[in-house]
Amino acid sequence: MKVGGTPHPYSAVPHPVSRLLRPKPASGAVPADARTQFRAIYDDWFDDVSRWIRALGGVEADRDDIVQEVFLVVRRRLKDFDGTNLAGWLYRITTRQVRDFRRRTWVKHIFTRRRSHEPDVLPHAGGNPAMALERKEEQRVLQKLLMKLPEARRTAFVLFEIEGLSGEEIARVQSIPLNTVWTRLHHARRDFFALAAKYQHTERTR
């Protein structure tokens, strides 16, 4: 993409994992049998749905549960899908499931008086507990900063900067103009780095 005769700054960034959002079979190539069709969608789109959940702010520990909720909805509603823009249809379902799961979790925490910051199991870090704790803290800070971004900007930022999707892929799955993607990324990067700088300043002055 070019802006004013020069390449767009984002378009030059390589995306080594963007191949994972590979073109999926056209609807006419998917077997008509509902069970077989669902299985093909599940196999082709499982990884993408998982990435979208992270980009939409889903808690890492809940990701597997949300993925299963998404595909339960897909299986139930597949008969009503018109075959147009499968990526966009799946993305809309994922968005609703992340939102609904977050609400259910919030209510559950209120009534059970659980802390919303209960620690997950620490990731393995080569037998070094200090490194594992440091990584966990970095993930917590990253999530905290990301959640301060407006949802549309946060989603674009995570899909592009963290998950490695191209601007074109983001536009396709969200069913939005490519220029809108670039605009959201521009503002998200500005907002994120401002938040990161403020956080670092606060930590240094403690």
Give me some keywords for this one:
mainly alpha; two-stranded antiparallel sheet; 7 helices; Rna Polymerase Sigma Factor, Chain: A; 2% strand; 2 strands; globular; 206 residues
> What is the third-level CATH name, the topology of the domain at 19-118?
Rna Polymerase Sigma Factor, Chain: A
Number of helices: 7
**Gross geometry:** globular
Taken in chain order, the helices and strands follow as: EEHHHHHHH
CATH class of the domain at 19-118: Mainly Alpha
Describe the overall structure.
It is a single chain. The protein is mostly helical and 206 residues long. The chain has a domain at 19-118: RNA polymerase sigma factor, region 2, helix turn helix motif (Rna Polymerase Sigma Factor, Chain: A), CATH 1.10.1740. It is built from seven helices and two strands, in the order E-E-H-H-H-H-H-H-H. It has helices at 34-55, 63-77, 86-112, 129-146, 151-162, 167-174, 178-204; strands at 2-3, 6-7. Strands 1-2 form a two-stranded antiparallel sheet. Helix 5 (151-162) crosses helix 7 and helix 6 (167-174) packs across helix 7. The chain is globular and about 60 Å long. The protein starts with a strand and ends with a helix. The relative contact order is 0.12. Mean pLDDT is 75; it is low at 1-23, 26-31 and 110-127.
